[in-house]
Amino acid sequence: MTDCKLFIAGEWVDGTGTFPVKDKYTGTVLATAAKASREQVRRAVAVANDVFRKTPLDPYRRYEILAKAADIVKARSKELMDIISAESGFTLADGQMEVTRSIQTLLNSAEEAKRIHGDIVPIDAAPGQANRFGFTVRVPLGVVCAITPFNAPLNTVLHKVAPALAAGNTVVLKPASYTPITAAKVCEIFAESGLPSGYLNMVMGGGGDVGMWLLEDPDIRFYTFTGSTAVGRVIQAKVGLRRTALELGNISATIVCEDADLAWAVPRCMNAGFRKAGQVCTSVQRLYVQDGILKKFVDQLADATSKAKVGDPKKADTLVGPLIDLKEAERAETWVGEAVNGGAKALTGNRREGAVFHPTILTNVKQEMRVMCDEVFAPVISILPYGTLDEAIERVNATPYGLAAGIFTSNLKTALTAAKRIECGTVHINETSSSRVDLMPYGGMKDSGFGREGPKYSIREMTEEKMITVSLP
Question: Contact, 120 vs 132, CB < 8 A?
Fold first, then answer.
């Protein structure tokens, strides 16, 4: 067991209390994490604000620091994978993907640090402005508060921290209490990469106290948050005119058309439904499969799922490990049990062993069932038949959310019609809802939030456009 301390002004600091961080599969305590006091939260923000104003970093230095951080992550891949597997319960394959993607997030952020620019504004084209020139520059905002989830304890942290630093901001990070060890490693890595003290600070604790203290601090200029829609509403209401980027909940759907290549679609749907034990906001929760291929698709998906290895995430061939907490596995078991009692049929899974819930495929589901109308955040896929594309699109759109969706088809007109009409921030053609490349813009519509991640797009969110004019008397 180790200590996981707060990181303020380049120093590791004890909190005023502690909480345990457990191995999500074995339940053993991995570390004792420090809980920040109100005064420590205030100090972290004040340090970040003071450093921002007194110690600016030029763009090339930001590039060097971020590129060096990417090298360190690559060199420490095994250590990071082991920590992620233990404190999140993710399989080795999921942990490896998390580390690999994080390197790209850092490299993309490093490159974008050198590309921040404004525009030439043709002021001289306006009447009476012949001897006047204009241009814009993008300037950093100041202190960025990053509030991050457990389900991408390295890459989502870096999707918030790295672009903020690339833009010239300072950061106060509050990681999920389930997974603070990985976040502490991020602080270590940036310190080793040459980031000046105070540019990145980390406080830990619950959303009801530490989170609220952060929202109340007037020196924070921007909040970037990934989590539930309910918490997103609280953040937006609390911070007022200050800016936010909110990546919130979803009930993700993917459409499989009769002309889809099933050899391509089936393994992608299975992986997208069950990777990270279904604890991804774009996990395939609803699969709409056209009538003509329904039986063939269901048989293939159920057969592949029934052969998947489930359990110990540290075994190389495990597909599905534990959920983040026993209570979440029990919730998933309850929701599936309600669906089955209501007439749904479980083709696979529907079995819990401790915090592990076996990957479950449901058919004969109804819209009012919780596995359909709430975000399940567990390895559960519901398959529904459809007849026409119009019907499928209407059903995909019939939720308050709009983060991402996918469609499998060989018909270009079908693909582009769906892409145009589906109400989501991203529509993937011949990929599932859960296909994300880290350099692309990523974010939602409707109750799935607003703002865009992806280093280039996050930097745009985290900078201010300033207009400058020059007159020649």
Answer: no
Please return the burial class of 53, using the count of CB atoms within 10 Å of its CB with bins 0-12, 13-18 and 19+. exposed
Residue 373 appears among annotated catalytic residues: no
The whole-number pLDDT of residue 1 equals 54
Task: State whether 317 and 363 are in the same domain.
Answer: yes
Domain co-membership, 230 together with 155: yes
Which pLDDT tens digit goes with each residue over 25-38?
999 999 999 999 99
Within a domain: 298: yes
| Domain assignment of residue 10, yes or no | yes
From the list 257, 281, 375, 453, the catalytic residue is: 281
CATH no. for residue 186?
Answer: 3.40.605.10
- Does 306 share its domain with 230? no
Active-site residue (options: 112, 247, 375, 453): 247
Pull the structure tokens for residue 304.
Answer: 């592949």
Q: Which CATH number covers residue 402?
A: 3.40.309.10
pLDDT digits 0-9 by tens, 311-354: 999 999 999 999 999 999 999 999 999 999 999 999 999 999 99
Reading the block at residue 443, the tokens are 């974010």
What gap in Å lies between CA 170 and CA 453, rounded to an integer? 17
Q: Work out the average pLDDT over 204-210.
A: 96
Beta bridge partners of 428: 406
| Inter-residue contact 205 to 177 (CB < 8 Å) | yes
The pLDDT of residue 138 is 98
Is residue 49 domain-resident?
A: yes
Q: Mind listing the pLDDT tens digit for each residue in 212-241?
A: 999 999 999 999 999 999 999 999 999 999
Say yes or no: 308 and 429 in one domain.
yes
Tell me what the pLDDT averaged over the chain comes to: 97
- Structural domain includes residue 443: no
Range of 279's domain? 253-438
Does one domain contain both 156 and 89?
yes
Active-site residue flag, 79: no
